[in-house]
Each structure stands twice: as C-alpha cells, then as structure tokens.
Amino acid sequence: MGATMKRTLLALAAAAGLCAGLAGPAQAADMTVRLTTPSGAVHSVLTWDDSTDTLCLTLRSGSASASADADMRLGSTSYAALGVRPGKTRDCTGNLSIPEDRWAQMRLYGGTDRFHDTTGWRGFHT
Known about the structure:
Blueprint: H1 3-23, E1 31-36, E2 42-49, E3 54-59, E4 66-71, E5 79-84, E6 90-92, E7 103-110, E8 122-125
Antiparallel strand pairs: 1-2, 2-3, 3-6, 4-5, 4-7, 7-8
C-alpha cells in the first residue's frame, strides 16, 4: 500500500471518529408536567418514564378529576389518553414500545375539558 493510500485511509478514519463523537448520546429523558390550582397547589402530575416508555397520570387533589393526552407522532396508533378521578387516582399506559429519539408531546388538563385549566402541549423526546 502506497503512502498516499495510507494517508487517505488515516484521514477517513479520523473523520469517521470525529463524526461519531459529534453524534452524542440520545436526547431521550424523563418528563414531568404538573397542573397547579390558582393557589399554587399541585392538582395532578403527568410523567413520561423513558426507561419503561410509560406515561402515567396521578391525581393529587382529592375532589377533582384530570385527563391527559399524548401524541407520539407515530401514525394512527400514536395517541394515548389517560383519566383519573377520586377513587382512581393513577392511570398508566404500560409500555408503549415506541422507537427511541422520537419527538412527542403531551398535555395535562383539569376535568374533561381539553381547553380549560390546561398545561398546553409540552414537547419531549422518547
């Protein structure tokens, strides 16, 4: 192998290593959204657990209800809806088996009205 070929291979190997280093780790992380009352008390909490691909809604207020939506942007089966109320204070999706590093969004709202007492859509990576 000639000197020119060796230099070319070394340059390509260095460039490949640099590209791999720039890629960095996955963006995914856990996500928590809290809906608070006007007084600042936590009404309900929506969490995304990235290690188990699970979405959970927990009611913290004893006399109200809460609902949550998640859009995983994976086509027609990407939508999850959760609801909690007194007597059923926690609702989870189970493992959603979705690909890593996808952009998704979730929102939490009081009662059943998606446009009232809402956190609005919050984006995150799966």
